[in-house]
Amino acid sequence: MEIGYVILYVGDLAASVGFYRDVVGLAYKFTDAGYAEFDAGGVRFALYERRRAEWLTGRAVTPGAGGEVVVMVADVDAYAERLRAAGVPVLSGPADRPWGHRTVHVADPDGFVVEFAEEIPRARGRR
């Protein structure tokens, strides 16, 4: 078994495509019928218009902040500088986390938290 797709339901597809393509740096593939797809390495990352998602699921889909997208990078401090230079508000970090990541957090247009993380040595004594 493997995870094939991660899909976020978004309010403004064009704004979200721009964010994930231009700010996050994911490789954009295509947009069709309220759906946009990116190549994110071993898993596909997609965006789907929230109004269409309600048709698909048969119930109202609430916006944003119900999840987090983590993007692994080689140098989180350089990414944080890139984000600031682009005018993207940083929610937290860069900071070392005890579980072995250095992270910086921003929010996408729908309020989903996007974490950029780089692996660092894990703090001793933690499980």
Could you give a quick summary of the protein structure above?
The chain has 127 residues and is of the alpha/beta class. It is built from three helices and eight strands.
Key features of this structure:
single chain; 127 residues; alpha/beta; 2,3-Dihydroxybiphenyl 1,2-Dioxygenase, domain 1; Signal recognition particle alu RNA binding heterodimer, srp9/1; four-stranded mixed sheet; 3 helices; 24% helix
What does this protein look like?
The protein is α/β, with parallel strands linked by helices. The chain has 2 domains: 1-60, Roll (2,3-Dihydroxybiphenyl 1,2-Dioxygenase, domain 1); 64-127, Signal recognition particle alu RNA binding heterodimer, srp9/1 (2-Layer Sandwich), CATH 3.30.720.110. It has helices spanning 13-24, 50-57, 76-85, and strands at 5-10, 27-32, 35-39, 44-49, 68-72, 92-97, 101-107, 113-119. The strands form 2 sheets. It has a 4-stranded mixed beta sheet. A 4-stranded mixed beta sheet has the order 5-8-7-6, with helices on one face. The longest helix is centred in the N-terminal third of the chain and has 12 residues, at 13-24. The relative contact order is 0.19.
